[in-house]
Amino acid sequence: MEKNSKIYQAYVNILKEELLPAMGCTEPIALAYAGAYARKILGALPDKVVIDVSGSIIKNVKSVIVPNTGDMRGLDIAAAAGIVAGNPDKKLEVIAVVSPSQIEKIKDFAKNVPITINHVENGFMFDMMVTLFKGESYAKVRIVNNHTNIVLVEKDGNKLVNKGTSLDKSKFTDRSVLNMHDIWDFINTLDVEDVKPILEPQIKYNMAIAERGIHDNFGANVGKTILAAFGNSVENRARAMAAAGSDARMNGCEEPVIINSGSGNQGITVSVPIVVYAKELKVSEDKLYRALALGNLTSIHEKTPIGVLSAYCGAVSAGAGAGAGIAYLCGGGYEGVVTTVSNALAVVSGMICDGAGSSCAGKIAASVEAGIIGYKMYGKGQAYKGHDGILGGDIEETIANVGRLAKEGMETTNNKILEIMVG
User: Fold this and answer.
1) Are 318 and 299 in contact (CB under 8 A)?
2) Contact, 296 vs 19, CB < 8 A?
3) What is the CA radius of gyration of the chain?
């Protein structure tokens, strides 16, 4: 692939747009961002707060600890943290810097200021609006379809921003250019210097939070359990380190991560196993970066037809992406990579997302294992056959089929999960 070609530049831009820093689970952080932005517009601490959110936001905020809040959780806490201590200019790192005194103010605010939470369904899986009141004055901020896509800013009846509810696609590179054949061409002709500034932070941040999860106590300690129960092989380390990163992230660790497809867990899942394998195999830095580019782009390609939130667990796409990167590191060619992805998707595509929480670590471990087994099957000349179940005749048809399953087929599943979770 020529470096000056449109597809090459598009792939570099997609990595830039997707691999962003965030601290904490991205849905509560987006809510904190909306709160911080609204507080900035209001110009004062409010005396009343109203939060309107879609079911998928409730599902993904309900159970996770909001970082820098003293181990508190919930939609009210996420919004309060942004309102009291957030810096909206930092977007998904909005509450990355919070002092001990501010934590006490967050607690006091959440306890003493009325915060009303309304479940609304306006046709968007990702939909949140925070309205702050101070006496007769108010400020309103709405985010739709993407964690930082502010579509409405209103103060005292004046619409300062009013973009409708569609995602402004002019801000993003067209994801329809993604396909496995061109991704493979890209990573093999890549000038690594073009992606090194994007991928270096992913290695640094995501491995750091994985190490925290392995060495400290967070959540259900899935990562530590895997190593204790199954040993220290590279396969187990890959699963355990990725799970440990989620253990930490879902349970209040203040370490930032580099996200993929809007999710920190997906960013951890696709990158950490590749780095673990690269260290084990002692590959060059150049090969590591190519493997990470392959894994990240594969995961984004899989996730694009699904959308940012779904009843389909995003770790599945990221685990298959990690499998693609591992296949490349182990010497697999194009057929090895796409067979690995197909094998992984054939097994774990039924995994549900019942909200962000401690169980995400176990789902990540299972998804990474599916990617690893998918490659080992290929190495033994084994593969699930095309048109077996949801598999298509080739990798692109399979990815499209999984997208239909997740976006269309699991819509009612998402409603039922929410009903079970919140009654």
Assistant:
1) yes
2) yes
3) 21
Interatomic CA distance for residues 266 and 288, integer angstroms = 18
d(CA 1, CA 173): 18
Residue 414 structure tokens: 């998402």
294 with 313, same domain?
A: yes
Residue 298 contacts residue 187 (beta carbons within 8 Å): no
Structure tokens belonging to residue 372: 């690893």
Q: Which stretches in the chain have pLDDT values below 50?
A: none
Decide which of 169, 190, 208 is a domain's last residue.
169
| Domain enclosing residue 213, as ranges | 178-422
Return d(Cα 339, Cα 139) in angstroms, integer: 51
What's the rounded Cα separation, in Å, for the pair 345 and 322?
Answer: 12
Identify which of 84, 98, 151 has the alpha carbon closest to the alpha carbon of residue 124.
Answer: 151
Instruction: Give me the number of domains the chain comprises.
Output: 2
Eight-class DSSP state of 21: E
Whether 203 is covered by a domain: the verdict is yes
Q: In this structure, what CATH number is given to the domain that contains residue 394?
A: 1.10.4100
